[in-house]
Known about the structure:
Elements: E1 4-8, H1 27-39, E2 44-47, H2 56-65, E3 71-76, H3 83-96, E4 101-106, H4 111-115, H5 123-142, E5 147-150, E6 155-159, E7 173-176, H6 182-189, E8 192-196, H7 200-215, E9 222-227, E10 230-231, H8 235-255, H9 268-277, E11 282-283, E12 287-288, H10 290-295, E13 303-306, H11 308-321, E14 323-328, H12 333-363
Parallel strand pairs: 1-2, 1-14, 2-3, 3-4, 4-7, 7-8, 8-9, 9-14, 10-13
Antiparallel strand pairs: 5-6, 11-12, 12-13
Helix pairs in contact: 1-2, 1-12, 3-5, 5-6, 6-7, 11-12
Amino acid sequence: MSVEFIGIIHTQNVSEIHPPAGPVIDVDYVETIARAHDEGGFDRALVAFHSTGPESQLVVAHAASVTKNLKFMIAHRPGFTQPTLAARQLATLDHFTGGRVAVHIITGGSDEELAKDGDHLTKDERYARTSEYLDIVRAEWTSEKPFDYKGQYYQVDQGFGAVKPLRTPQIPVYFGGSSDAAIPVAGKHADIFALWGETQAQVAETIARVRQAAAKHGRQVKFSLSLRPIIADTEEAAWARADEIVAKAKALREAAGLPTSGHRPPNAGSQRLLDAAAQGSRLDKRLWTGVAAVTGAAGNSTGLVGTPQQVAEALLDYYDLGVTTFLIRGFDPVEDAVAYGRDLIPLVRKLVAEREAQAVAAAS
């Protein structure tokens, strides 16, 4: 199995240790971080979605214009654009980027955030709507003749997409969501299922659940894992930086009047990370939960800490569980992207290639 690396492009320099500053859309920053990922050998970069943030497809359109090889993972929330239109928008962008588009379906776990966009469905209802949404998106991408669709949330009469994705048969669909309502939808629709950086035991459990759900539809799913690697020349220096990051994140949250312990977001992904954090700040070989504990696991917030060699070996432990995509981003976004491209990504690719060669030799 080959390995894929995904980074992240925000529209301004921001992280748990960098409060947002300057314009919400800093064009120079977008171009700088996009080029850092392109030159660093990342396969893709995620552009996130939030009910108060810039529109992800438009950000990708600009980032694609200043990069050559970097592909993109567009976070997209079903329900706010008609699925027929969304399918044509994504297919159109796929052509203008030379086939560099993938979509990351995020149904949304926070009722409060979704209400900002006027969405008041329950979580279970949202995932049911997502399933219908993706039925229609795929039909737009693949159907060679007009189609009808009759669902609870969508009814389409003679829908048809004259523009198809540049790649056949369709744009890759990444999917996030760990709740009981999410897993069946992932089994039906996900090409790549995205997990946050959980313990090896948690990851193995989720992979088994998704594979079982996919098998009901005769499908196979790949898996992605999101982590925040902290690398340094020595293990001691890496852990010292991890401690500094926790201290900075805590200080920034306290200054902003935000809690630094005891808060538990409603989405299942954050709850699973907090369950891991409750076991300790250092788990498995070098899984680190320090920032997750401070922020209430608000997003991808666990990391792997050590030298590039140590972190690469820890990534391969997840690779052995079935993870073939790693979404890695740092707390100093541009600087860490450069370091990953220089010191971590080539090493992981080398180790994976060696492992594959050994497997071929053993089988012959």
